[in-house]
Specification:
This protein is of the alpha/beta class and 343 residues long. The chain folds into 3 domains: 172 residues, Rossmann fold (3-Layer(aba) Sandwich), CATH 3.40.50.300; 66 residues, Histone, subunit A, CATH 1.10.20.140; 72 residues, Crystal structure of tRNA isopentenylpyrophosphate transferase (bh2366) domain (Helix Hairpins). 53% of the residues lie in helices and 10% in strands. β2, α3 and β3 form a beta-alpha-beta unit.
Length: 343
């Protein structure tokens, strides 16, 4: 139940658990995360580059104040729109929230769609050599010929510390570790160790926590596009224009700020400044949101170790939600974080 804490069995079983709940915009991630609180002792952490800003409420689909009062979401309303907020900022803030939540015996549940933030937390913030396309192609060719298990064995010979943390089929991480070594002559673990000593590095989250990653994947892209258009129109009816007018009238905000570049806000700002007609603003706002969903799905297609929940949004909303929750709980029931949680 919601008030339960992790059992001593979980606390002694190894790494503390965390959950990622991802998916494109307008797929119902927040509602699902809130519902999970009735089944698991989770605390919600927002992963959204617009929700971090105060005053960006309607256009960002920020949860209603009543819901936030009942079900707090961390990392919401933590910046003024005039400030910037980076993926590195998020990774450091998220680590702090994780430590606080796990110290209370509960499970951090990350929910949102800003994939760059998820990636910063998943992969860490190591200042290792940049990607080398030529070396990467060589590694991919070797993998095609000999398999990733063979390359994992090769990594174990040069960097046993990193290899020990990786599954033999974890191709993306094996590739990166080999690429770092071949391009620099230094192992990835050596880079990470040096930066930890200097206090400038955050390692991959799986070094310290037991991670389960879930994504909501729409079966029908056209239906998702319809949902996006409906939601954008609903935002307009709820007062989105007046919300952006308040930001516009402040006088200290510019269109190149990250907050104002957020999907929907950029188009409304262009309308208020006379660059777009109202009709053009609506059209471009919907198109930009659809493009965002496409980028999010592109990220997820290449995401490692992902549990996918495929959803038919043409069904009744109640049916959809019940299926999402059931499938999500099935995934969580197969991992220790669910089996070892008090019911």
């Amino acid at each position: 139940m919601q008030g339960d804490t992790l059992s001593s069995e979980t606390e002694n079983s190894g790494l503390p658990p965390i959950i990622f709940l991802m998916g494109p915009t307008a797929t119902g991630k927040t509602d699902l995360a809130v519902a999970l609180r009735d089944h698991l002792p989770v605390e919600l952490i927002s992963v959204d580059s617009a929700l971090v800003y105060r005053g960006l409420d309607i256009g960002s689909a920020k949860p209603e104040p009543e819901l936030l009062a009942k079900v707090p979401h961390r990392l919401i309303d933590i910046r003024d729109p005039v400030e910037s907020y980076s993926a590195a900022d998020f990774a450091h803030d998220a680590r702090r929230e994780i430590q606080e939540i796990t110290a209370s015996g509960r499970i951090p549940l990350f929910v949102g769609g800003t994939m760059l933030y998820f990636k910063a937390l998943l992969d860490g913030l190591a200042d290792s050599p940049p990607a080398d396309a030529e070396i990467r192609q060589e590694i991919e060719k070797e993998a095609a010929e000999k398999g990733w298990s063979f390359l994992h064995q090769q990594l174990a010979l040069i960097d046993p510390e990193t290899a020990a943390r990786l599954h033999p089929n974890h191709s993306q991480r094996i590739q990166r570790a080999l690429e770092v070594y071949r391009s620099s002559g230094k192992t990835l673990s050596a880079f990470q160790r040096e930066q930890k000593e200097s206090g400038s590095e955050l390692g991959p989250i799986e070094e310290d926590y037991q991670l389960t990653q879930i994504a909501l994947i729409p079966e029908d892209r056209l239906v998702l596009h319809q949902r996006i258009e409906q939601r954008f129109n609903a935002m307009l009816q709820q007062g989105f224009e007046e919300e952006v007018k308040k930001l516009y009238r402040r006088g200290d905000l510019q269109p190149d700020l990250p907050a104002i570049r957020a999907v929907g806000y950029r188009q409304m700002w262009q309308y208020l400044s006379g660059e777009l007609t109202y009709t053009e603003m609506v059209h471009k706002g919907v198109v930009a949101t659809r493009q965002l969903a496409k980028r999010q799905l592109t990220w997820l297609r290449k995401w490692p170790d992902l549990h996918e929940i495929h959803i038919d949004y043409s069904e009744d909303n109640g049916v959809i939600f019940d299926k999402m929750l059931t499938n999500c709980l099935k995934i969580l029931k197969n991992v220790p974080i669910y089996n070892n949680t008090s019911q």
